[in-house]
Amino acid sequence: MQLKEEVTESGGGGGSGAPKGGRPKFGNTKRKSGQKSRLLQKAKKFAKQGRLGRGFEVDTETYNYFVQVLELWQKNAFESDEERETFITNSFAQTEGHEVNYSSNQLTSRVIETILPSASEEVLLRFGTAFGPSLRTLCSDPFASHVVEKLLEIASAEKWAKESPKLTEWFRQTARFVLNNLEEFTFGK
């Protein structure tokens, strides 16, 4: 039943999964207007039911904190760039020491993935360093793999290539590792 709802919500249902234009939707396609709030609504609903996301089990306080982060981020109710930066800094401060575990939870990984593009170099390096020993497992994890992917995407940006040799080196090593193990990550061998 749930899978059927997801297909309907994404605009599929025409057999091939392609929209009316004939091309399947992939990557950064434009979302429907209510799609962001739907995630937030579901997260709040699941919290009331005591279901705190699949994957790594976070405590109720952590789950509710990340629901609030998501809500504030989606509202974009920041009065200044300084206020927004403080919010991002505080949000990532909550993840310190828990980067791997929080990246492996359904909701927290989604929130981290959403705000990661606004993170500082220090935060990006902290996540990269934390992921190092568990990289093989994280690349196969249904939730953490998205955070790893987003981190690689951010680290590959020209901005960081010029400004951060450490982040650039992390990107090179990690990208090489992922490419060398791509078959295992995609086919589960």
TrEMBL record:
Q: Which SMART domains match?
A: Pumilio
Q: Which GO terms describe its biological process?
A: endonucleolytic cleavage in 5'-ETS of tricistronic rRNA transcript (SSU-rRNA, 5.8S rRNA, LSU-rRNA); endonucleolytic cleavage in ITS1 to separate SSU-rRNA from 5.8S rRNA and LSU-rRNA from tricistronic rRNA transcript (SSU-rRNA, 5.8S rRNA, LSU-rRNA); endonucleolytic cleavage to generate mature 5'-end of SSU-rRNA from (SSU-rRNA, 5.8S rRNA, LSU-rRNA); ribosomal small subunit export from nucleus
From what organism does this protein derive? Folsomia candida (Springtail)
Its cellular-component GO annotations read: 90S preribosome; nucleolus; preribosome, small subunit precursor
InterPro entries reported in the protein's UniProt record: ARM-like, ARM-type_fold, NOP9, Pumilio_RNA-bd_rpt
UniProt protein name: Nucleolar protein 9
For this UniProt entry, the molecular function terms from Gene Ontology, in alphabetical order, are:
RNA binding
Task: Give the Gly residues compositional bias ranges.
Answer: 10-20
Q: Where is this region: Disordered?
A: 1-39
Which key words are in the record? Repeat
Q: Which residues cross the membrane?
A: none
Look up the domain of life of the source: Eukaryota
Upper classification of the organism: Eukaryota, Metazoa, Ecdysozoa, Arthropoda, Hexapoda
Q: State if Repeat is listed as a keyword.
A: yes
